[in-house]
Amino acid sequence: MTKRRILKITGDDARDFLQGMITNDISRLKDGLVYAALLTPQGKYIADFFLMAVPDGVLLDVADDLGDALAQRLTMYKLRADVTIASTPLHVHRGTGDTPPDGNADPRDPAMGWRAYRDTPQTDDTTDWTALRVAHLIPETGVELTPDTFILEAGFERLSGVDFRKGCYVGQEVTARMKHKTELRKGLARVQISGAAEPGTDIIADGKPAGTLLSCTATAGIAYLRFDRAQGAMTAGTATVTRNDD
After folding, report:
1. What is the DSSP string of 146-163?
2. 57-63 and 84-87 as β-strands: parallel, antiparallel, unpaired?
3. Is residue 141 part of a domain?
4. What is the percent of the chain where pLDDT is above 90?
5. In what order do the strands lie in the sheet with 84-87?
6. pLDDT of residue 208
7. What is the spatial distance between Cα 144 and Cα 215, in angstroms, rounded to a whole number?
8. CA distance 189 to 155
9. Rounded CA gap, 121 and 99, in Å?
10. pLDDT of res. 36
11. Is pLDDT above 70 for 81?
């Protein structure tokens, strides 16, 4: 599992501040975890994270290697707002069984189980999260989600990670235009793999570049594809790759 950083955002303006920054509607915190992203003004990915309400603020669960940069970016935007952003010593716990009393369902997909935030590291997790992600087309920070990513190409609408009715946020204009005025020509898709293939391998269709294989197991993967070319049997190195849209 990707190492995580848990930030805490407090202050009288914390929720209003976040509402103007993130892709999702902060009011959804009343229902549990909220999945969202921070974008550049050009609509490209900076970071994805989970938000959870606590009595004195909001916890923000982000990949550890993005934590410092995200905190700095949010601090830059807050200007004179009454907002404090600080790291916490909390640890993420995850599982796919019954949700514990301190846990919340992962909002991206029921198959991704639950998340909880505790004082000690988790030592009992044996879940193959990569296999689950591949099976349910869930992008991972730093793998499918990179600074070149447009979140709709990564499936954020399906993952309950973006709200098109909440109003303005950083990168909203580009995201809304992609939703309402264009048909996605590229994006993530599940693929079946026959043969040995490594993440990062180019996918070729009829001699032309059709995409890149990203996360994968022995027989399946997530690929970033150019949809007009990703038809029929393709190759990734010596492996045969086919789209799996089921």
Report:
1. -TT-BTTTTTTTTTT---
2. unpaired
3. no
4. 96
5. 34-39, 45-54, 57-63, 4-10, 84-87
6. 96
7. 8
8. 9
9. 18
10. 98
11. yes
pLDDT, mean over the chain: 96
Where helices occur in 90-240 by DSSP H, the ranges are 129-136, 172-181
Residue 73 shares a structural domain with residue 161: yes
- In terms of Cα–Cα distance, which of 159, 241, 150, 233 is closest to 194? 241
State the chain's maximal CA–CA distance in angstroms.
58
CB-CB contact of 51 with 60 (8 Å): yes
Phi, psi of 245 (to 5 degrees): -95, 5
Six-digit token string for 140: 């991972």
Query: Number of C-alpha atoms within 13 angstroms, CB side, residue 3?
Result: 5
Report the residue count for the chain: 246
Residues 172 and 197 in one domain: no
* Helix, strand, coil percent values for the chain (each to nearest 5): 20, 35, 45
Q: What tokens does 197 get?
A: 């293939």
- Report the pLDDT averaged over residues 118-145: 96
Question: What pLDDT, on the 0 to 100 scale, is given for residue 1?
Answer: 60
Q: Is the dihedral of CA 9, 14, 15, 20 positive or negative?
A: negative
Give the number of domains in the chain. Answer: 2
Domain span at residue 232?
186-243
Rounded distance between C-alpha atoms, residue 44 and residue 38, angstroms: 9
